[in-house]
Write a structure and sequence with these properties.
This protein has about 300 residues and is of the alpha/beta class. It is built from 9 helices and 14 strands. It has a domain of about 140 residues: 2-Layer Sandwich (Nucleotidyltransferase, domain 5).
Length: about 300
């Protein structure tokens, strides 16, 4: 094996981000299907995507986080309980052999959220570890992290320890309403939401369920375009998420956003309406940084 090289994978439900890494960072990137979309076994997909790396550099260890460790993934890895120090994640990793490579999957986390309900995350814990590495200031005091996505996570850090978190399925609700409800059924599948529609929806500080029907009625009566309607729907849902979650995570004047840059920008706009400043970090880069840190400790 070429000294210091390893493979890192952030394998979620909808996509796989794979990277060849060394001790300094990412050397090469490639992408694949998510765990919820694969037609072949995870092992077959991993070995096909990484075959040339192994040929060129010899057998490489691989480190994964995300839904690859869930019941629907490659191997199920038990959740670790909160409060949790992200640096201890390597101790709960499950390791096994695949095609001659040692594959290790990081465990997810579980907690009782601020609503008193059981909650879980997979993948975000490694992104949080990467954020702590990039921003050591997060290791002291109380901080709010928001990880937008299919199931957004609101996380409270206390001196670098994940104290609690809360999941909000905003992205999943948006996808379901867009694809299966009458609200946006007439909008072509490849239509992208507009920023103007998003801002308009964000400004609708009304009860969510009655406001949702406006996605349809504004198209029928006011001639709202399909793209604006999708933006309006997104604004309604993200605005409702932030307004509701702030009841559980009050007292924070600043939040770190960890996720896809375009989605984080929408959350930044919504947070600004609630007088909360934000700083965005790329979720993929944070995940690879977190996995690289775990690799260095093994």
């Amino acid at each position: 094996m070429t000294h210091g090289l390893f493979i890192a994978g952030d394998w979620g439900t909808t996509k796989l981000r794979l990277a060849l890494c060394d001790s300094n960072g990412i050397v090469q990137r490639r992408a694949g299907p998510g765990i919820g979309q694969i037609a072949r076994s995870p092992e077959e997909i991993f070995l096909s995507l990484s075959a040339d790396w192994h040929v060129e550099h010899g057998t490489l260890p691989a480190y994964f986080c995300g839904m690859v460790g869930s019941r629907m993934g490659w191997r199920e890895v038990p959740y670790a309980p909160c409060p949790a120090d992200p640096h201890s994640l390597s101790r709960g990793a499950l390791s096994f052999s695949a095609g001659g490579s040692t594959v290790s999957i990081v465990p997810g986390l579980t907690c009782t959220n601020p609503l008193g309900a059981p909650d879980v995350m997979r993948g975000e814990e490694t992104q949080i570890l990467g954020a702590l590495i990039a921003h050591p200031v997060l290791a002291q005091g109380r901080h709010l992290l928001i990880l937008p996505g299919t199931h957004s996570k609101w996380v409270e850090l206390r001196d670098g320890v994940i104290h609690s978190f809360m999941s909000v399925p905003t992205g999943e609700v948006f996808a379901l309403l867009r694809a299966q409800s009458t609200l946006a059924k007439s909008v072509p599948e490849n239509t992208l939401p507009t920023a103007a529609g998003f801002t308009q929806g964000l400004a609708r500080k009304q009860r969510l369920l009655p406001s949702l029907f406006e996605v349809r009625s504004r198209q029928l009566i006011e001639g709202m375009s399909g793209a604006d309607a999708l933006g309006f729907l997104s604004g309604l849902l993200i605005g409702a998420e932030i307004e509701g979650a702030q009841e559980s995570y009050s007292g924070f004047a600043e939040a770190r956003l960890i996720g896809e840059p375009a989605l984080s920008a929408l959350y930044a706009e919504a947070l600004a309406m609630h007088k909360v400043d934000s700083l965005a970090l790329d979720g993929g880069d944070c995940a690879f940084a977190g996995l690289r840190s775990i690799f260095k400790k093994t």
